[in-house]
């Protein structure tokens, strides 16, 4: 699969699934625009790695929860690489996983802005550049939605459940609505490796991983990236409205 002359924008593109997707897409010929929120050092290092491998990349710092910054992000991508032909919405604010009695409305609002509003804004900008009704060649949008509720469950994952359900709804709704624009909309739902013996029970906290667990997280990201790349490829040109669950093996902690 060689996607020369095609442009992929990845939000939340410097870590985890986003970074793995950027690397893999660049290796297959995509010009890649990596969006990130604030870690300039990581963005610069990842961009250099991709260039060292012969890839074409541009990194853009922008908060996708803010409309003006999403507009600027896509305009900057246009200028640096050309109009996008695929968008991967991976940016999200980590949930607090606090019990419902400690629910923080301000924090939840930030999460909604990044995960839901940001996805809608990116979809809008993508349509402006991809729609066959605007003279473009169509394209692909992929939402990345971790399997939070399935992995943990219970009241402590209520924020994640709401956010992930919203992205699931976006996948279904936009897939139907954007068919006339020649734009396919799908989702990849990775489950982070589950680890036993953290705090005496089953956990899903990837940010605590060390040793063998950290190695498994690389596998987790790569597995999800492969499915994302398939969804934005010509091999999936009849696939829209689908959600692919990416499972990872358990690890003893």
Q: Would you kindly provide a brief summary of this structure?
A:
With 253 residues, the protein is of the alpha/beta class. The chain has seven helices and ten strands.
Write up what this structure looks like.
- It contains seven helices and ten strands.
- The chain has 253 residues and is of the alpha/beta class.
- It has a single domain, classed as NAD(P)-binding Rossmann-like Domain (Rossmann fold).
- Helix 4 links the parallel strand 4 and strand 5.
- The radius of gyration is 18 Å and the shape is globular.
- The relative contact order is 0.14.
Secondary structure class reads: alpha/beta
Using the CA coordinates, give the radius of gyration: 18 Å
- Listing every helix as H and every strand as E from the N terminus to the C terminus, the arrangement reads EHEHEHEHEHHEEEHEE
SS element count, helices = 7
CATH topology: Rossmann fold
CATH superfamily: NAD(P)-binding Rossmann-like Domain
- What is the CATH-assigned architecture? 3-Layer(aba) Sandwich
> Strands across the major sheet, in which order?
3-2-1-4-5-6-9
Separation of the first and last Cα atoms: 38 Å
**Major β-sheet annotation:** 7 strands, parallel
C-alpha geometry: globular
Strand content: 15-25%
What proportion of the residues is helical, as a percent range? Answer: 40-55%
Query: What's the number of extended β-strand segments?
Result: 10
* CATH C-level name: Alpha Beta
């Amino acid at each position: 699969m060689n996607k020369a002359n095609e442009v992929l924008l990845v939000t939340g593109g410097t870590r985890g699934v986003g970074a793995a997707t950027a690397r893999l897409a660049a290796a297959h010929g995509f010009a890649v625009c990596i969006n990130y929120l604030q870690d300039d050092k990581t963005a610069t290092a990842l961009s250099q790695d991709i260039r060292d491998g012969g890839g074409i990349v541009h990194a853009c710092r922008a908060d996708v929860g803010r409309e003006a910054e999403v507009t600027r992000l896509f305009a900057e991508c246009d200028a640096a690489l050309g109009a996008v032909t695929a968008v991967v919405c991976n940016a999200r604010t980590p949930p607090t996983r606090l019990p419902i009695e400690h629910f923080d409305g301000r924090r939840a609002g930030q999460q909604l802005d990044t995960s839901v509003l940001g996805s809608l804004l990116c979809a809008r900008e993508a349509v402006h550049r991809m729609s066959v009704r605007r003279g473009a060649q169509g394209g692909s949008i992929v939402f990345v939605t971790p399997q939070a509720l399935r992995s943990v469950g219970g009241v402590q994952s209520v924020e994640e459940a709401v956010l992930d359900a919203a992205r699931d709804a976006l996948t279904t709704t936009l897939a139907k609505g954007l068919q006339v624009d020649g734009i396919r909309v799908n989702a990849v739902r990775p489950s982070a490796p589950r680890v036993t013996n953290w705090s005496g029970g089953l956990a899903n906290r990837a940010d605590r991983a060390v040793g063998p667990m950290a190695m498994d997280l690389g596998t987790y990201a790569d597995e999800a990236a492969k499915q994302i790349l398939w969804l934005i490829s010509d091999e999936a040109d009849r696939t829209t409205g689908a959600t692919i669950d990416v499972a990872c093996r358990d690890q003893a902690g």
